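Handoff note, outgoing to incoming analyst
You'll be picking up this chain. Sequence as last confirmed:
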Amino acid sequence: MTVARARDYAWLQETQPDLAEAFCMSYVRGLSKSEALCRLGAANRQLRSLPIAEAVEAGLCAEGHPPLTAHAVSIHGWVVIIEPTGCRATHPATYRTLSAGTELVSVRVLLDHRYEFRWVVDGVLQTFLDTRWPGVRRGTRPDALLNEMRAVELDDDSEVSAPGAAALALAESVTGARVRPSHLNGPLLGAELSPTQPVASG
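Most recent structure output, in case you need it:
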């Protein structure tokens, strides 16, 4: 596990402020990009090169519900799935499918409303917290990541000034995968998702 700090993710707000306001970023261990996207609900035939910037812009311009897209990048044995206009990976049916036989770490940010961190192993939610209130945790192992939380300055009594960045730093501490600005530049393998939530296969 690596040493990460919230300040290591200040670049997201600085370089992609629209994305930083609302996103879901999920790390899945040991899968290919296409397998992870298909587990999320994308059809294999619909996978294509898809820039995140275009998806964010489409979401900003949408009059109703924005199109749901997912984009994948491989980092040190993990596939990181970015959902710029949705949060499908946070639904129990989906994270059970995504993490089947492996491990999932997910960060969901909705500016001023949600700063969620999930750690799931083989379909079972191990630890869940909102990084604004790190002392309030649930899951089958709510205290399993206390050392990693302290390392990124998420203490029970701490006041978190950048909860979104802190959640990403915690994800890096657990996975060892650091997301950098270069990972989000240019087209990534992605797909537009159906607005209908897929049914878990197990």
